Amino acid sequence: MAGSFDSKVAVVTGAGSGIGRAVALAFVREGAKVVVADVGVDGGEETVRIIRDSGGDAIFVKTDVRVASQVEAMVNAAVQTYGRLDFASNNAAISGIVAPTHELQEDDWDRYIDINLKGVWLSMRYQIRQMLHQGGGAIVNTSSSASLGAAPNIPAYVASKCGVNGLTKTAAIEYARKGIRVNAICPGATLTPMFKGFVANHPDRTLEGAGDSNPMGRLGTPEDQAAAVIWLCSDAASYVTGVILPVDGGQKAQ
Questions:
Q1: pTM for the model
Q2: pLDDT tops 60 at residue 201
Q3: pLDDT at residue 22 greater than cutoff 80
Q4: Contact between residue 241 and residue 183 where contact means Cβ atoms under 8 Å apart
Q5: Chain Cα centroid distance, residue 232
Q6: How confident is the model over 107-136, as a mean pLDDT?
Q7: In Å, what is the CA distance from 37 to each residue of 16, 23, 40, 45?
Q8: By CB count within 10 A, which of 1, 112, 192, 239 is most buried?
């Protein structure tokens, strides 16, 4: 598929590290120009540096996905710099709070919903408006395998990701005849800074244990998730929309 995205433009939120960074790099390997969006300046600029050092083309736009004006500016930057927007990977999210439902604090609930769910909706709102204007595009939202069943002690995270699944399916149907495909990936345990932080806050989990319990006997990598995003954006998936795709080594098939 290398070079299959020549002349195409992608926006990746949460691209300063982890899965988002891997997706941004994967888009570049396929020939796309990339808008790297992240609330963290250091991580976002580092991703751009890696891309440019490899000969790719990217810009960084500081973006808090909770803020409509910043999300709109992110999409505008893609159009103003590169002339269009073909792909979007909405990956910005938080994790880490471990508490049963009755102990979760209201502020923590609001923060999860604002970033993980509202942030995806705001991103899609402005991405879709541009894609409608130019006649099509592909969006891949990052959900979680935790949204596919019970995940005790992370209720706000689960609720936010279940919301992403519903939003993805709804938008897929709304825009199926407008040339816009909308899908989601559901990463399982993946070796990212966010997952490492989650494990560190969970007294009953270890990275080694998470890998050993997987049917494939290992943790996922950010590159595993990026490969799924690239496929869903590609012409090879031209008849695929509204799919909530587990990328979890078979964990949820057990």
A1: 0.95
A2: yes
A3: yes
A4: yes
A5: 12
A6: 98
A7: 7, 12, 9, 9
A8: 112
Place of tokens 């002349």: 7
Residue in the block written with tokens 């290992």: 218
Among 114, 174, 160, 167, smallest CA distance to 140 is for 167
Across the range 102-122, mean pLDDT stands at 97
Active site members: 157
Residue 203: pLDDT band with limits 50, 70, 90: low
pLDDT at 202 over 70: no
Three-class secondary structure assignment of the chain: CCCCCCCCEEEEECCCCHHHHHHHHHHHHCCCEEEEEECCHHHHHHHHHHHHHCCCCEEEEECCCCCHHHHHHHHHHHHHHHCCCCEEEECCCCCCCCCCCCCCCHHHHHHHHHHHHHHHHHHHHHHHHHHHHHCCEEEEEECCHHHHCCCCCCHHHHHHHHHHHHHHHHHHHHCHHHCEEEEEEEECCECCHHHHHHHHCCCCCCHHHHHHCCCCCCCECHHHHHHHHHHHHCHHHCCCCCCEEEECCCHHHC
